[in-house]
Amino acid sequence: MNISSLDLVVIAWFRKWYVPLGRLAVFVIYFYFGFLKLIGESPATPLASALVERTVGLAHFDALFMVLAVFECVIGILFLIPKATRVVIPMILIHMLIVCAPLIMLPSLVFAKPFVPSLEGQYIIKNIAIVALAVGVAAQTPPLSKKSQNHK
Prior knowledge:
It contains eight helices and two strands; from the N terminus they run αααααββααα. It is mainly α. Strand 1 and strand 2 form a beta hairpin. The radius of gyration is 19 Å and the shape is globular.
């Protein structure tokens, strides 16, 4: 087998497994992080608490954190279901608005110094990869109708 043939085999394998592996990866990240919140073991708790304190008040933290935890678990589960892609992508975007808010609202907690993220900041910034992966998987979703295919 020459290098060109091997290249084609590897690319074909990537194309075949990109969407299933992408779906699995998004599930693991969302469900796992949501589950950690549900059982009170999330390393993001202090940052989330500071955000809630700054926005709606700490009296609402426990309820909102549990809602976020369940929301994350649901996103993870729905991402495994191809027919739910059109529903779950907007959910991911809403989630990103919430979890990325500390970059703007609490910069002292997410940046050690200008352009140098703290561990919490890195935790948030990695979401760029999750969004890119979700968009890549969603891009493989079949159109609703044949008319949509003509407008590529």
